[in-house]
Amino acid sequence: MTNAHFIVPVRDGERELLDRVADLATGFAAVAADYDERAELAVEHLDALHEAGADDAVLPESAGGAGLSYLGLGRLVRILARADPSTATIWTMHAGAGVALAEFTGESSGSFFADELRAGKRFANALSEPASGNRFLQPQHVAEPTAGGWLLSGAKRFVSGSEIADYLLVNALVAGEPAFFGVVPDETVSIVPIWDTLGLRATRSQLLAFDDTVLRAEYRGRAPRPGDFAVIPAGLPAISLGIADAALDALVEHARTREILGKPLAHQQWVQYEVADAQTRLAAAHALYEQALWQADHGIALFFDNLARAKYLANKVAVEVAQLGVRVGGGSGYLKRSPIQRHLRDAQAGQLMAYSTEVIAGVIGRGVLGVPDEA
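User: That's the sequence. What structure does it adopt?
Assistant: Structure tokens below.
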């Protein structure tokens, strides 16, 4: 039922990719809880996605890739997130960093990074700083000039999949302006061992410390442009929507199989009413997201604002559906072995990913009320 809102078909050729990913996702789902329990990266999942053609697909045609549409990207990430949201998150960040480096350095090293992405090398997105909050495109760390480039000292947080990354997408202030670089992790980049998170544990989104790390001039890229393929902003709503889909699936399964006074819990009127509200709001969130993706594929400038709205709604709906799952699940849903509690923990993480629901709410609210943005 949660897929009934998918009306617009994907482009020719993308259906086969999505079918391959869906087949893989079935296996991912079977072991997602185990990886979450161990807080372990599912490296074989990422390998399987590469072999299925996901990395080549997400690379734009201008960079030598297959040029996946926004609609195809959104559905791919949603399929993954429904099965294993940690894998979905790592792959989205990996793809976002790889595509960004291929595009940002297009006039210098772009073909190199594109070839590395197609070859199966792994990328990680290292933009967020403890001091910059959600404003990950506005770094506070100042890079100092050195021979062949600049030196960076500081920290980047929530770097998903950083332990296996061959390249990092890093930004810093150069001459007072944000600059973006590809960085090969070396002995100057270290992991601060504080990772012990509540949800999305298998992303291992570490805090990285940089100690006079060289930002090489030949790996410097330009700033993002409106025409770039915005993998991460387009993928983030799908992560929460996939989590919400999985939470609703678990809720329905429990309500159909758990009996109360001789009848399945699904016969309880309060459950029916609450599920009706949750499923309708989830369908609305999917529809808003699909509209934003369609707009992106058709060059409608409003798409970026609507992706932010879609993330805001998807984040909140995912938490609401997961919380309802706990209520319907009762004591058994609160047990650690239940998938219901994992969906709730994972759903909370979406609200914290940049831009957070609070930041997006401020932007949307100011726009509706006509309040100028703060300088």
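DSSP finds eleven helices and ten strands in the chain.
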